[in-house]
Each structure stands twice: as C-alpha cells, then as structure tokens.
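User: Please look over both lines:
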Amino acid sequence: MIITDDHMHLYNHLKLKALEQFKNAGGTHVFLVSLLSKHYNVKPTKGEDFKKIFDAHIGLVNKANKIVRAFAVLGVHPAEITIIGGRLGFKRAAEIMKEALELAGKYVEEGKAVAIKSGRPHYKVPKDVWDLSNEVMMHAFEVAKDVGCAVQLHTESYTLEGIKEIAEMADKVGLKREKVVKHFSPPKVKEFEEVGIFPSVICLNDYALEAAKQGDRFMLETDYIDDKSRPGAVLGPKTVPRKVKELLKHGFDEDFIYKICVENVERVYGVEMVE
C-alpha cells in the first residue's frame, strides 16, 4: 500500500533517519521541500544565489530515494521577503524571490524537481510588504503555468475568503486551481473542493479523520521540520502512516487510501506513483 507524506523537510536533527522512521511506520512516498536560505547559510543578493540551496536539496532528495520514493519541491519561502528585505529592502527582496522562482522552474523543466513552493507571510506585515508578497506569489503561478507544475503554498491561516482570493489570482495567469496546493490545510475538504484549490491536510489531532468524512479530495502531510532545536515539530515523520492506518480502522478502505495517497498526488503533481 502506498502512503504519501505531501510535505516534509529534512534539516539538522534526524536527517535521513527520519525517512527510515517514516518507512518503518509504513510510509512509501514523500515530497521533500527545501527550507529557508538561512538554513543553508546563504544570504542571497540575487536569484542565482538560490542555486546553492536548490542543488543541496536535490542532492538530499537523491539520497532519500535510496530509502523511499522521494520527490523534490523547490521552495522560495514567503518569509524570505522579511529575511532578505531586512538586508536589501523589500522591493529588491521581491525581485530576488521572483528570480529564484524562475530558477526553480528550470529545475522542474530539467526533471530534477516536481513542484515549486511560494505563498505569502503567515505573520502580520505592512501593506507594502503584503502587496509585494502577492506579486511574488502571482509570479510563482506564472512560472508554474509555464513549466507545467504545481505550486505548494505557505500562507496565512486558512479562511474561505483567503483561498478564494488566491484561486482568483491563479485564474488571472491561467494556472489551473487544482495545481495550487494549500500546505498546512485544515480539514475543510468540501470548501476546498468548491473553490478548486487542493488541500494538503496537516495531520494534527483528528484532522485526517475529519477530512475523510468530508470526501477524498485531499492529501496528507506532517510538515516535519527536522530542527534539533524543535525536535518533532511540526509533526513526527511516522505521523502520516499512523493516521492512514487509523483511517482503515475507521472503515475507510484501501481504495480510499489509494485515492488520497496515489490518484490525487498523480493528478496534482503529474508524477507516476509506483511502489
């Protein structure tokens, strides 16, 4: 049985051992997302500086593929606007982020990555920074449309109005709504289905079960960060396999699991999920 974690990081704690834990718990497929520039000791002054980050991440994903089936997502985290902006100004930060997203798109075209990550800050920022962040996110949508990939989004806490606004932004550049994945989603499966954006449900508490009760149009994730200063955050690497097995105990059959862990993933990311 294929069990997929849609959003996980590897950093400086368990590293590849996290994937051994994931595998031993029943996990088979994982989407590994690159981290912030500061995690790689990179202080970008131009988009090209993200090459070091992306190359390091691709190298890690190649090693991960010896343990489970791993796919690379190359991220330009929305918090970069604050990190880079603090050094170079917010407008320049936005330009660098757009350049980095174009670079990420090239990695997708070369078959090294399957998706890109963007979004807008999950914390309060001034209006000019918010507007610039929306510009960057729109650019991510343009890149994704051009190279034919999905975008994982890190955004503010979920509201129906917020995802409707994001969906309309995707419409403006002609990116299909189902190619926009809301990472760290609550189990609002019906609302996401109405809007068209794809939810990657975070496996907190009974979120997986609540999502399953609403339908099968979702994916599951841990957002495991692998930071030794916060071990286990956000959720441990065994969580998705455990939650999938709980769904089976609650009467959801293997066809249901196949839908959320295989069919949905293939549909959104355009990858082939083989065991």
Observations:
- The CA atoms of residues 77 and 93 lie 12 Å apart.
- The mean pLDDT is 98.
